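Quick one: structure tokens for this chain, please?
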Amino acid sequence: MKKSKVFLAGILGLLTCFLVVACGAKKEQAKPYTAYRGLKVYPVTITSIKSKEGDLLLKAKTKAPDGAKVLVKPESGSDYSLNNNIASSDDSDGYTYARVENKKVNFKIGDLFSLVKETKDLNVAGTKMKFKAFAVTGYDEKFNQETMTATLRKAVTKAKIKTTTFKVNKKLAKYYTDLDKDDDSDDSDSDDKSSSDSDLDLTDDDYKELASDIQTAIKNDTPVTYDKSKKTILINTDQSASDSGMRQIIHEAADGDTDDWNELTEHLTTISDSLDDVSITIVNPDNKNRELFTVKGGKVSYDFINKK
């Protein structure tokens, strides 16, 4: 009889341990956020989308705490915009982050051009615009730093934020069609005085401007220059603390996590496809005489990950 009681006590003890562990695991899984390198990313549930004067006005609910910043990452735009935050507060001009208050947030997307491949797509009702909206804490970048850091992009990927799709409605299509007509009217007086873009060759100044655009698209503190003698746009990643975003992408790729690296090089390959006889090269931060990636005319000649 005593043995039976001991046996039952043992079983109950194991069952209790199992329940404690199981409940603990369930409680752990119930966290409303995904944590990554000091950031906590929360999903938001959009409850309303309206269009007004070419903008999208959105309402959403979330489990993020008061003060959490709400950002939007384009998923359907051009390569230059895919790493940008296009959300802002819906107050006045909206030049600040939208923030959570009482588990709710109102925000706007004022840059719809970042959600389409070509500007004329906004003139067509039914064009799909895709984006990921989320809340985040621990993100200290200034609002005028459009490009999301590599760390935040990685956190969003790990959080598996769902993509929202919104179709251009008739109201938006009319707004942007009328906007194009106004632009055409403003340009009509100068048509006879200037040649079309298709008749012009890219100059050194054009390539310098493109290098500046790439610098902004990647990370504002990553030096990007145009070397006229080599006809190469150089991404000169260095070892400074301010260039940590770019170095993090490289180090993660070297360690086998190539998601951000592949995304970056795919964008550079797309850009190079439209350039004449000019290469884009990512320089090795440990040896300035060596390259990590080179692409020309849309064709990759070297990638240190694939050893191509």
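Residues 3-12, 192-200 have pLDDT under 50 and may be disordered.
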